Amino acid sequence: MMFKLSLIAVIFFLNFSVFADEIAADNFGYKLTSLEYKLKNIQENGNDIGLDEADDKTVIVPIGFSFSFYGEEYTELEISSNGFVTFTPTGDAVCCDGQVIPTLGGELDNFIAGYWQDFDLSESGVIRTLNQDINGQTTFTIGFYQLADNDNASEAVSTFEITLYQGTNDIELQYAQIQYDEIDDKVLGIENQDGSDGIQLAFYEANNGMANGTILQQEKGYCFSTKYQCKTPTKEPTPIPEPPMILLFILSSLFLATRYFK
């Protein structure tokens, strides 16, 4: 009897835990999940895109393939020295605060914020890009390495990466370390073309009481995906039952168990 009850408990756990790593979701269909930390570290072999020594500057670069973001296809993006990329180039690096996601009528739309805040690469840091094959899948990585905060260059230095996946259109964020400075608002996440939808991984408000240099993310990985969760697909994934179906399955199992053990 105990074995059968334990089996039912295991079935309950396996069905429910499918959703355990989901952190957030938006209306479009993106889901934010946690991911194994694995920095690609393209600082040495990546392309110098001309943002070394930059403060509040942008550059437009080719992605190397067609990438779908909120249902629109893009072959290039704009990189800001302030820690984000946008698929709607404006030439504006948007100093100095990151905005809450989503924000209608904000300073910026259609973006991926690795760590949007006020950086100054003239103090320290480089930004590199690289197309590479990862497990048979073409990717494009934008790496931000040892970027110094404009207001506190000695205590707040950050390293992180944004990677786009061809075909699956997944977005991967990897954080070696990002640090806090009290002057500006900071944000991590994605936002659609008009600011009506998005997922906010984190928002750090200025002057919130944290000490300068506080580590906000360290050796963490995240994925924004509508399908594959930043894993190379080998076949079409098996559809996962929605939570109401899982609940129905659990209740049915418990009902049958009580009948069986009478």
Describe the structure.
By secondary structure, the protein is mainly β. The protein has one domain. The chain has 2 helices and 14 strands; from the N terminus they run αββββββββββββββα. The strands form 2 sheets. It has an 8-stranded antiparallel β-sheet with strand order 1-2-14-11-10-9-8-3, with no helix packed on it. A 6-stranded antiparallel β-sheet has the order 4-5-6-7-12-13, with no helix packed on it.
Task: Compose a concise summary of this entry.
Keywords: Signal. It comes from Thalassotalea marina. With 262 residues, this protein is mainly beta.
How would the blueprint of this fold be written?
Elements: H1 2-16, E1 22-25, E2 31-35, E3 47-48, E4 58-69, E5 72-80, E6 84-86, E7 111-116, E8 126-134, E9 137-148, E10 157-165, E11 171-179, E12 186-191, E13 198-204, E14 215-225, H2 243-260
Antiparallel strand pairs: 1-2, 2-14, 3-8, 4-5, 5-6, 6-7, 7-12, 8-9, 9-10, 10-11, 11-14, 12-13
Strand order of the biggest β-sheet: 1-2-14-11-10-9-8-3
Order of helices and strands: HEEEEEEEEEEEEEEH
Number of structural units classed as domains: 1
Q: Please state the average pLDDT score.
A: 87
Number of helices: 2
Point out poorly predicted stretches.
2-20, 234-242
Main sheet attributes: strand count, strand direction, barrel closure: 8 strands, antiparallel
Anisotropy-based shape: globular
Helix content: 10-25%
What structural class do you assign from the helix and strand content? Answer: mainly beta
The separation of the N and C termini measures 11 Å
Strand percentage lies at: 35-45%
Number of strands: 14
Structural Rg: 21 Å
Organism: Thalassotalea marina
Keywords: Signal
Protein name: PEP-CTERM sorting domain-containing protein
Signal peptide: 1-20
